[in-house]
Fold each of these.
Amino acid sequence: MILSRILEHKKAELRRKQSRGYLSELKQRILDLSRPMGFALSLDANRKPGSPALIAEVKKASPSLGLLRPEFHEHFDPVGIAKSYYTYGASALSVLTDNDFFQGSLDNLAAIKRQVPLPALNKEFMVGDIQFYEARAYGADAVLLIVAALERRQLLDFHLLAKELSMDVLFEVHHERELDTVLEWIPDVRLIGINNRDLKTFSTDIAVTIRLAKRIPSDKLMVSESGIHTRSHVEQLVEAGIHAMLVGESLIKAESIESKIAELRGTEISHGCAKEEFR
């Protein structure tokens, strides 16, 4: 199972980071930063009828597909990609920071936050306290908590730690049991992400969002994640009452980010000919 492999590797990685000096360095870095941007607030403010708010993901590779574009072997420009997302209408960013499985980095997150004025989610497998200090120190406005990867006590403790660091939390669920855990144990949850990807097989199915959305109270912001490739997919999400969509692979693989965002959001391209960002 891919998730189990990633989590075991992540725990080993964190053991190598456990030092009082490193944590102190992160806390000092946080003191020099301005307050995080409102991730949930941006999503809520930018959703429109027929078009959920867009969380656009900066992603170089995945465990199942490897590099998402052949040219990433020699050139990957996370800041340039994030700027394109901002230019063409994204409401927020998701930045992969895991190195071993996704070829991401915290340095990518920091560079993007210095140059792109959008709130950013640190897309990481959070299993230890120090990762939250890392996320904040490198500029994250929100963090991801994967319910399938954590015990209930961890969900509670990590949620509180993120709040102490002024970051929003996106709770990611995959089926009814996980959703019920979040709603029961963290009643003040604001952001609930429904991952359409099966973490055992890495296959995707939009039907997961459609099924689980019916169980989520109306006061929560619902985010559909993964497997969103066409306008038809988005229309299904709109029908299900989804407030935001997290899209990565279909944007990264598109010849034109502008055209793909326009397609997904059901809008016209306003800049004439579509720009081919990756050529």
Note: Residues 272-276 have pLDDT under 50 and may be disordered.
Amino acid sequence: MTAQPSALRAPVDAAHVLGRCRALVRPALTEAVGRMHPWVGEMAAYSFGWCEVGGTPSVAPGGKGVRQALAVLGAEAAGAPGRAGVPAAVAVELVHAFSLLHDDIMDGDAARRRRPTVWKAYGTGPAVLAGDALFALAVETLAARPGGPRAVRVLSAALGDLVRGQADDLLFAARPWTGPRRVRPAEYRTMAEHKTGALLGSAAALGALLGGAAPPVVDALDRAGRHLGIAFQIVDDVLGIWGDPAVTGKPVHGDLRERKKTYPVLAALDSGGRAVRRLATLLETGEDPEEAATLIETAGGRSAATAEARRHLGAVDTVLADAVLETGAADELRTLLEYLVRRDV
């Protein structure tokens, strides 16, 4: 493949990339959801922000479509047209929606994107059913394509990792803040790779696979997505403590109020500094999240999180630089990945 001279290539804008990929994928995603049982399909459409309870069309903002964009760009990076990655994009978007429906139930989250979650709007049982239906539809979408068996294996492996990550995340909540059984930063990184990175990696890998990429390219895009998932999760953790509520949609110090074991907290507790004992007391009781945030920063938790996110972003760049990718799509892929994690690092 011949690389276009950088001086002749137009600047790449992440919002444009996301919009282009959403426009390519949306008809196929709509068609897939339309094959579901009408009631279950309504819950799926509600989860995507397409309608309100009862089916009335909605103007509620949906997600950015990051995973579907990765699938389209994965196909294009392999030298195929973006439409080759559309079935992969549909499948990973369905799986992502499935995971959010179940995740909201497990975490007891009552709102997502500033409106009631599916289980709050329709009930717990119906939300579980809708999640199951989304998962089944995702597998069906891939299985029907040429190369479907291999694609389903890739998706199944990612789902297995996602379940492992979610299990670890739930178990972390019951472990102590200090002592030999405390959660270490390395354990958290593994959890984040599984819970967040596995699906991001499989999105790009599946797009490349359906686009006819060689196995080394498919594997490289999977690794890049996994590093991205860790960086993305850690940046999200930073924003969960110090982010602007007007941007994040979450209250300031929200993760501390909920006593979540996030990366900045774990890194601070692992530092062994003088602030650790007082910080552990505050985390144990849930008192004074403002002081806890200050102690985390004093103990180096925020800077350690920033450094770790940058390290994984650098790993993404290295993986992509070593892979043989179509130049224009690779540029768009890098722009999208940087957009996702350069929010506060």
Note: The CA atoms of residues 30 and 186 lie 40 Å apart.
Amino acid sequence: MQFIKNTSSGKVSIIGLVIKSIIGLGVILGIIFFLSTIDFPAPKKEIEKIIPNENFKIVK
């Protein structure tokens, strides 16, 4: 008696592919929505540093 190995190679179900892509898209959109609700810390004022012209040297 021989065993017959049934594999699904070459048999791609279009319905299964559509369902997997919809689930993947939903997960990606859920992650984006979740990250947009998080309030990340940001500086309150603009940081500005004045560099005096004395420190610059001309290099030729």
Note: The mean pLDDT is 80.
Amino acid sequence: MITPALRVLVVEDDPDVAALTATILERRVGCRVIVLPDAVRLVPTLAAFDPDVVVTDIQLPGTDGLEVARVVRERAPATAVIVMTAHASVEHAVGALRSRADEFLAKPVPSAQLTEVVLRLGTRGRQERERRSSTVVLAIGAHPDDVEIGVGGTLAAHAAAGDDLVVLTLSRGARGGDTDVRQLEALAAAEVLRARLFLEDLPDTQVSHAEPTVGIIERVVAEVRPSVVYTHTRHDRHQDHRAVHDAVVVATRTVPTVACFQSPSSTVDFRPHRFVDVAEHLDTKLAALRCYASQTAIRDYLDPIAIRAAARYWSRFAFGTAVEPLELVRDSGGIVSRVREERAASAAERARTTGPGHPGEQRPGAE
């Protein structure tokens, strides 16, 4: 048996079938089972019971199991759905597939088959829930090396805190060099940061603020479900950077926290609201930037001295000796508590060693 017990919601209007299904799952697998005779209370039950598996008949009063599957997929993506029917047909099987059900079973279902399917899908769902429970951070840039320059240290801090990192780069930087080389460089940098990389191929210098850019970002957001998104500021001379910013604002409407980083092409209108202490992670940022050998030879702003100098400059607004600045689009969670806790520990140590009134005392707006 699985500990804690799998939670199974059975939606079945036939009381005999419902009772038999519940008995089998409770006695043979040790599941906690709730039975609903119809889908009227489906949504509040999903919220209150939080099932690992939903088992539903395909024919229900007022609706059908395919609609149940669609609702579960929308409300609880990690919950497995098993559709059962006494009227198996190609039409019903295809409907279950289109509703994104995990399994389609024909009644009567042998008890051994039912328990095997519930155990397999419930265990898989538990693993998916654990994966989704960690904070996912998505950094979106127009070109290879954009996010590493802007928030490479912040991303390294997230990784150190155990967060999952995803980088979405929307073009392969054809105007800045060989795209095959830049692709390999982007992959190497993502490995340094311990990030998953999505590399698109929109036309360099012609990235749109609308489609297909918005659609690409929406698909990645739907797949990885980030809690925090970092991207370009609107205050930037590069047209691709501005376009990506506008597209991100549209495509991340459901993301709790969205913040903008500084690029070498940012204007003086860039006005940060938060400052992330990256002193302990600056070496990781520089290691990621070294992966872009084709660019470091021709871009002065990638010189490690310049990177360190910029981080040192922004430290005047916060604790620490190396800081990355961020403009906020919205911040319902405070740029993730784990990273904030790291900064708080650093702040406490600095306060202890400098004392009140020292030039290192925290300024308003520092994080």
Note: The mean pLDDT is 87.
